[in-house]
Amino acid sequence: MPNYTLYYFNGRGRAEILRMMFAAANVKYMDKRFEFNEWDKYRKDMPCMCVPVLEMDGGMKMPETMAIARYLAREHSFYPKNNMDMMRCDYIADCFYEIMHDYMRYYHWKNGRFRFNMSGSGNGPSSPTSGRGDMDTNSDNYMQWRYMNTCHRVLPFLERTLEMKNGGKNFFMGDQMMWCDMMCYCALENPFMENQSMFSKYPKLMALRNRVAGHPKISGYLKSRNNTNW
Ligand SMILES: N[C@@H](CCC(=O)N[C@@H](CS)C(=O)NCC(=O)O)C(=O)O
């Protein structure tokens, strides 16, 4: 097994699904976290200038959350075996990732971080900033609208999809926890903390999150992990 280093900010964010999979698979890795004000130091060494990034044996660096998640799922048996089931698992995970992606953009926008520099040379993400500064309230509203719209579009489908398998009493793919179940836990973590009432319409997804949290490996991880706001 390679020596893994996972690079990400000191937050759960997009990296948490990967940390959770490492925990569920009982795989040791270096959890390299940094603060926003350190980002300039790391950014140029990251493919695509984004994180999360998974480094293997101190050499190759792999970008893209979902590519890394799929790799870990294949390595550690969090993928179902046949092609149709893989596809089901993939689209469920991708649906959750849509929510996570829009939530992350909304969250960082709200907090004045990682805004594109519309006025200057920037055609890439800006350096971290700490305040709301020149926040454009229309964009602020758009980010929130987009995130909420994605939730309203995707969550009813996921609730139905879960119910289709054994009435939604187990995991998405049956009695084994797969990576799409862990995505359900991670993608909804902040959204649920911020607005619990919105999730009362999705009791099966909420029960699934509890099942994931109760998984022997995950429950230990959740107790011992760093507590961060996002
Ligand atoms: N497509 C990438 C997007 C990754 C991404 O946007 N990461 C953010 C943090 S959540 C980032 O690295 N931002 C740095 C910047 O904008 O300068 C993925 O899915 O992993």
From TrEMBL:
<dbReference type="Pfam" id="PF14497">
    <property type="entry name" value="GST_C_3"/>
</dbReference>
<dbReference type="InterPro" id="IPR004045">
    <property type="entry name" value="Glutathione_S-Trfase_N"/>
</dbReference>
<protein>
    <submittedName>
        <fullName>S-crystallin</fullName>
    </submittedName>
</protein>
<dbReference type="Pfam" id="PF02798">
    <property type="entry name" value="GST_N"/>
</dbReference>
<dbReference type="InterPro" id="IPR040079">
    <property type="entry name" value="Glutathione_S-Trfase"/>
</dbReference>
<keyword id="KW-0273">Eye lens protein</keyword>
<feature type="domain" description="GST C-terminal">
    <location>
        <begin position="82"/>
        <end position="230"/>
    </location>
</feature>
<dbReference type="InterPro" id="IPR010987">
    <property type="entry name" value="Glutathione-S-Trfase_C-like"/>
</dbReference>
<dbReference type="InterPro" id="IPR004046">
    <property type="entry name" value="GST_C"/>
</dbReference>
<dbReference type="GO" id="GO:0005212">
    <property type="term" value="F:structural constituent of eye lens"/>
</dbReference>
<dbReference type="InterPro" id="IPR050213">
    <property type="entry name" value="GST_superfamily"/>
</dbReference>
<dbReference type="GO" id="GO:0006749">
    <property type="term" value="P:glutathione metabolic process"/>
</dbReference>
<feature type="domain" description="GST N-terminal">
    <location>
        <begin position="2"/>
        <end position="80"/>
    </location>
</feature>
<dbReference type="GO" id="GO:0004364">
    <property type="term" value="F:glutathione transferase activity"/>
</dbReference>
<comment type="similarity">
    <text>Belongs to the GST superfamily.</text>
</comment>
<comment type="function">
    <text>S-crystallins are structural components of squids and octopi eye lens. Contains relatively little if any GST activity.</text>
</comment>
<dbReference type="InterPro" id="IPR036282">
    <property type="entry name" value="Glutathione-S-Trfase_C_sf"/>
</dbReference>
<dbReference type="InterPro" id="IPR036249">
    <property type="entry name" value="Thioredoxin-like_sf"/>
</dbReference>
<dbReference type="InterPro" id="IPR003083">
    <property type="entry name" value="S-crystallin"/>
</dbReference>
